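Researcher: I'm preparing a figure for a lab meeting and need a structural model of a single chain. I don't have an experimental structure, so a prediction will have to do for now. The sequence is pasted below. Please return the structure as tokens so I can convert it later.
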Amino acid sequence: MEPITLTTERLVLRTLEPADADAVYQACQDPEIPRWTSVPSPYTRQDAADFTGPVSAQGWADDILYNFGAFTRDGGTLVGSIGLVRLGKLGAPDHQAELGYWAVKEQRGRGYTAEAGLAVCRWAFADLGVQRMEWFADAGNEASRAVARRIGFVMEGTMRAKIVHNGTRRDCWTGSLLPSDLGLPLATPYLPFPGA
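Model: Understood. Here is the structure written out token by token.
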């Protein structure tokens, strides 16, 4: 897929580029990012160059990672990284995707990640035909869960030993978002369990 740009009231979501490497490097020095995500630790300048260069470009080209840098519309400041990850189930019959994100420490608490996440989910539902958006986070990642809830994800529970992080299996929280949760049509019939 060719990369696209999304805009929200306060943000521009665009493909990360090599010129963004320094901002990504600085952001990923915050120990909370590798603590809760798959970002390498220690995070090197080469990691940032790879992520903003070939990893980002190849992800779009190979349809395995549609990643955006989230930047303020007023000033172009990096506020985080957000995108659709592990896109193996994007096509028929599953039509599923997973939303992943991290936020720059100094930009947290302003609602930017939820704003960006909502835009990415709406785009995925409307333009990519996604019928179920999934969210996973290490159990205990309250900040990520709060963002997912603000976007509209319904929490589904805890999965045992789902995430492998630094060689250790960890439990994770999971949630889902359907197009109908955002007032959009659901192409595939859905028969919810009556007791849910």
